[in-house]
Structure formats: structure tokens, C-alpha cells
Amino acid sequence: MDGIKIVPAGDSAVSVRFEERISPEIHRRVMAFDRAVEEADIAGALERVPSYSALLVTYDPVLTSFDALCARLFEIEPRPAAETLKRAPVELPVLYGGRYGEDLPSVAAERGMSEEEVVSIHSSAEYLVYMLGFTPGFPYLGGMDGRIASPRLKTPRTRVRAGSVGIAGAQTGVYPVDSPGGWRLIGRTPLSLYDAENAEKPFFLSAGDTLVFRPVSEEEYLDLGGEKL
Amino acid sequence: MIEVLSPGLFSTIQDGGRQGYMRYGLSRSGAMDERSLALANILVGNGPTEGAIEAPLIPPALRFGEDTLFAVTGARTELTLSSGGVKKTVPMYAAVLANAGDELFCGPVTLGCRAYIAVAGGFAIEKALGSVSADGRARIGGLSGGEKLKRGDVLPTHPLGREAALRRGLSVSAAFGEAALPRSGQAAVLRAVPGPQADALSKRGMETLLSREYTVAADSDRMGIRFEGEQVEFAPEADGNIITDAVVRGAVQLPPSGLPILMTAACQTTGGYAKPLFAATCDLPLAGQLRPGDTVRFSAVTADEARAALLEERACMERARASLSPLCLRVNVGRETYEIAVCEEILC
């Protein structure tokens, strides 16, 4: 396949590299290649980790080698990105503001708009899940409207609750586990992005998903199993 | 079962790691020194990646609730088995049979960093997402929630099998057991292959990284080993930041500080720093035995050389496994039945 570069990432992984920029088109190529490698079922290939413009493929060096794996990877012809199935967006219910999104008032004030406008802008976009990383199940999302971009807190919180939805600079994201963090919190989802007890589907999102945030009332949030604050 | 009398510094249950979830941001985890994990398991007759206790610097004290066959490998520590108040020294790198009620005390580590304590049959702990490895960030594995061992924890074990009892006394030489430990007073040499962002360094920067000695910093942990030493120079227009991509253990990240970080067993799955180098997989056990203050040097090899060294290491461990599988004979003499275990010498 043309336009890719395959370089070793140590002796047990290769990095398949596409044009180095962040764009949905490049990412679609990464995901199409990811699927094609999965379907090719290459002996010795283990895990695939897609990111913005690269796909890492780990391998068992006893079963294959860099050269042998490269030869197989260069043979792969992914279906054109346009032909790959576009899945319906994944919907994430969010209770915005109040105790559930403490920074919503300050974000709105800084941007010179009402809280409702921030929520409307945040919940009307379709976001692309470029990859998961940083913590288990944390989505790196693209597609946030620049009008609600907001700087991180100067002093990060020592504990941000799992499910918190935040803004950091031009990015938005959701905390899958309790962790320290400096994101500006605007809401909270009652769903778990990461649930190790759910062996069938421990992770709510996958790279390549599109995601929409749906504003919900406190009543619906609680009905969906959200924690009362 | 085994009761934790004192937990040591940061003892956790680790196995061969969690496979298949990196694309979801879940770390592989698993033993920092897979060679010592494998050796401990092989000695007691387990599969090489069975879960064992990984114990850095100050290992735990344990009480055996039943007769238990165990082995301690990895970092050098003095082992004392207390049996009914009588204390005796027992060897590392050997299968030792403890009786119910015996207590195992490990002295502070005197060479290397992490000791491994395996028991025959492994721990009877439920796997979380395919592994018993404790992952504190993901809150899974270990006894529960990815936590380290605590005083009073009870680790369930399997009943001692007949075959396991026959392994009592099997051992490998200390030289073989310690083959992948750092030597005191010498820089550990980590073989390394170029990474995807080798061009982020200037020619001089790469020379620096591949020739200078670096010292393991105090804030190193299971996620990564941070180094202090000479700053590595970036290529013009590079500053160490890249478009975030996938990270695996062995990656040497170079953040804008110019000081390398070796990503290890519990590393994050993504990172935004340049990766000019990758430590060879065969040398990750050695890296897992480094402690703050130790020095290392990176030595460039090709991916083929790194692979060949790994295959040789695996073959050596397989020979060890084969030679530690006792041939059991049952001999009837008159009315008595004798069981005789025959073992080979290890040749590597």
C-alpha cells in the first residue's frame, strides 16, 4: 500500500505511519488499515494500537520478524476509507452544570456567553474518538468548537470523579477513572467509560467511534445510575 | 493460603501481563523482570507466566497456612524460614518446601531491585481482564482493586500436589539465577534499537544517548525509569513533542528536558514525546532490576540482533524448564514403594 512508512518500534512492534497531522481523513486511513490488518490475521501479530496518524502493531518475535511482518503489512490493501461502514454515533448522556460541572459558570463567563450556550455548543457537535489512552478508556476527542475552548485550571484538582466531562484548551474529554486533573469540568455522565467487571465490554468507546453528548436532566441522570452529588 | 505478616515496600502480584487491551488505554502491566518470574515459576512447576509476588527492595514476610512449595528468584535477598521457632537459612533459586505454620522472612535486597516469590500451583486469585497483575491506575488485579499487599492479607493458594512435592530441592545455580541482575559498581548495558523518532535527535544527541552513562532517578517506578545525566540534543526544529502515538514497554521517550525515560511494564499506552530508541526486549528483565542510583549505558544493536538475543534467551529458559522437570520413577522393593525423581544439570 502506498503512502505509508513502516518503522520498527523496538524488536516486538512496528509503527505504521501515515501523514503526520491530525485530521479525520488521515485517521480514517489509520482505522481502515487497522481493520484490514485484523482481517488479514497475520501469524505472530498480536495487538494493534491506533492513534492520530499511526498504527502500532505488536508481534511475537519468536513467531515472526520485522522483515516478515513488514512484507505482509505492505501487501495489505484496505478498502477505500469512504467505503468503510460509518457507524451510528455513540451517545453519551451528560448532566451539565451545577454540582456536576462546577466550572461551567466560569467557562461561560470567560467566553462571554450563557451556560446554556456553552452546553448547546458542546452538545451539538459530533466528536471523533481518535484514540484511547492516558488512563484506561480515556478518549482523545477531536471536533470541539473553538468558541468554548478554555484554559486548564492553574492548580489541578487532586481528585476528579470518574464520569466528569471537561474542557482543556481546544479539547474535550471524559474521565474514565477517578484521577487528579486540571480540566475545566462542565458536566458528568452517569455511564462508565471503563468497567472492568463488564468482561463482555469493559470499554464504552473504541478508536474510530463518533461520539455525541446528550444533555439530560438530573432525574434522567439518576435513572441511568448516576451518582447523586 | 499464605498470610502477609509484613507487606514489604511495595509488593504486588504480577504475571505475564494483560494482553489485548492496549488499544483501549489499558496498560499491559505484568512482571518488571519476566526472566526471574519465569524462573521462579519453573522451579515450582508452574507455567512461566503464572502470577507471583513481585517485591522490590524490601520483600514481605509471609506465613504459610499449609505445606507449600515456593521459590524466590530475582534480586538477591537472604531467606530465613522459621519453623516452630527454629530459624534456618534457605536458598534462593531453589524449590523449597515449607510446612504449615512456617514463616518466611526476606532480608533487604542487596543486589538488583525486585525479588519474585512463586508458589506451586500459583495463587488462587480470579483474573481481571485476563491477568492477575495488579494495576493500581486501572484498579484491577492483585487480591482486589490493583492494590499492593497489606499486612494481614490472605493469599489463597492451591493444595500442594504430589508432583509438586517431588520438586523439593530442585535448584539452579546462583550464577544462572543472577545472570540478568546488574553488577555492583558497573553500568548496566541495555541493548537498544532505533525508534520511530530517531530523527528527532541531532547526530550529536544520538551519540550522547548511546555513549554516556545515565543514572536511575529516585522517581522511577513500574511505569517508567527516569534517568539523570547529560542532556540529549534534539535535531533543529525538534523539541521532543510529537503528535501523540502509541507507547509500549521498552520505548525510550525523550521529553523536552532532554533526559531519557525508559517505559516499563506498567507504562501508559500513549505518549506525546519522541521515542528515538527502544530497549531490546531481552534486556527488559535487567532494566526491571535497576534501582535508583544505578547507572546504565545504551548500546545500539539492530532489530535482528535484538531478536536473535531474545530467541537465545527464550531457548535457554526452555532448556532450564526441561531440565527442571523431574523424571519420576516408582520402584517397588518388597512391600515398600519408592518414588525417585531424576533431574538433569542445566547446561546454560
Can you lay out the helices and strands and say which pair or pack?
The complex is a heterodimer of chains A (229) and B (348).
Chain A: E1 5-8, E2 13-17, H1 24-40, E3 45-50, E4 54-59, H2 66-75, E5 90-96, H3 104-110, H4 115-124, E6 127-132, E7 139-142, E8 157-160, E9 164-168, E10 171-174, E11 179-181, E12 184-188, E13 210-215, H5 218-223
Chain B: E1 2-6, E2 12-14, H1 34-43, E3 52-56, E4 61-64, E5 68-76, E6 79-83, E7 86-90, E8 96-98, E9 103-106, E10 111-119, E11 154-155, H2 162-166, H3 174-177, E12 188-194, H4 203-211, E13 214-216, E14 224-228, E15 241-246, E16 251-254, E17 261-263, E18 270-279, H5 284-287, E19 295-300, H6 303-323, E20 327-333, E21 336-342
Parallel strand pairs in B: 12-19
Antiparallel strand pairs in B: 1-4, 1-11, 2-3, 3-10, 4-9, 5-8, 5-10, 6-7, 6-9, 12-18, 13-14, 13-19, 14-17, 15-18, 16-17, 16-18, 20-21
Protein traits:
heterodimer, A: 229 residues, alpha+beta, seven-stranded mixed beta sheet, four-stranded antiparallel beta sheet, B: 348 residues, seven-stranded mixed β-barrel, six-stranded antiparallel beta sheet
Folded structure, characterized:
The complex is a heterodimer of chains A (229) and B (348). Chain A is built from 5 helices and 13 strands. Helices cover 22% and strands 28% of the residues of chain A. Chain A has helices at residues 24-40, 66-75, 104-110, 115-124, 218-223; strands spanning 5-8, 13-17, 45-50, 54-59, 90-96, 127-132, 139-142, 157-160, 164-168, 171-174, 179-181, 184-188, 210-215. In chain A, strand 1 (5-8) and strand 2 (13-17) form a beta hairpin. Chain A is elongated. Chain A has 229 residues and is of the alpha+beta class. Chain B has helices at 34-43, 162-166, 174-177, 203-211, 284-287, 303-323, and strands at residues 2-6, 12-14, 52-56, 61-64, 68-76, 79-83, 86-90, 96-98, 103-106, 111-119, 154-155, 188-194, 214-216, 224-228, 241-246, 251-254, 261-263, 270-279, 295-300, 327-333, 336-342. Chain B is of the alpha+beta class. In chain B, strand 6 (79-83) and strand 7 (86-90) form a beta hairpin. The longest helix of chain B has 21 residues, at 303-323. Helix content of chain B is 15%, strand content 32%. Chain B has a 7-stranded mixed β-barrel. Classes of the chains: A alpha+beta (229), B alpha+beta (348).
